[in-house]
Amino acid sequence: MQIDAVDQRIIALLVADARASYADIGNRVSLSAPAVKRRVDRLRATGVIRGFTAVVDPAAVGWTTEAFVELFCAGRTTPAQIGVAARRHPEVVGAYTVSGEADALVHLRAADIAHLEAALERLRAESFVTSTRSTIVLSRLVESPGVGPSAR
C-alpha cells in the first residue's frame, strides 16, 4: 500500500490525539471530514493503523520506577518463548530481541524498588533465563507514542 504525505500527516495527527475528530484533522490537512474518514478506514483495513488506545501516565497509577533488563538465555531459546514469558509478567511494558551480547531487552515498570526487585526475580526464574543485567531509569528525556513525522 502506498502512503502519501497526507496519509502520513493524518497518522501523525492521530498519534498526537486519537480522539481528534475527522473534521479537525481535515482542517489540518485540507480535506473534508468524509475524505479523512475514508483514508482512516483504508489505513485501518490495510493494517497501517492497528487500533486506538488510551495512553496512561505511569505516575498517575503509581508505577514510577522503571528499568531495562538485558536477558541472557539458554541455548536455543526462541523469540516466541521469550515473548510468551514476558506476557506473563504485568510489569513488562515491552520486550525486544536485540543484537549484541544479550538475547533480549525487557522494559519493566513497577511501583517502587521493592516491586521492581520482585518482578525482576520472577523474570529471572523463567526456565530459559541464565542471567540478567539491569539498568534503572532515572529520568525520561524523550518519549514519543508514534512513528513517522511529527504532527506539527
Automatic annotation (TrEMBL):
Residues 3-64 form the HTH asnC-type domain. The keyword Lyase does not apply. The keyword Transcription regulation applies. It holds the Pfam family HTH_AsnC-type. InterPro entries: AsnC-type_HTH_dom, Dimeric_a/b-barrel, Tscrpt_reg_AsnC-like, Tscrpt_reg_AsnC/Lrp_C, WH-like_DNA-bd_sf, WH_DNA-bd_sf. Keywords: DNA-binding, Transcription, Transcription regulation. PANTHER family: LEUCINE-RESPONSIVE REGULATORY PROTEIN (PTHR30154), TRANSCRIPTIONAL REGULATORY PROTEIN (PROBABLY ASNC-FAMILY)-RELATED (PTHR30154:SF45). This is Lrp/AsnC family transcriptional regulator.
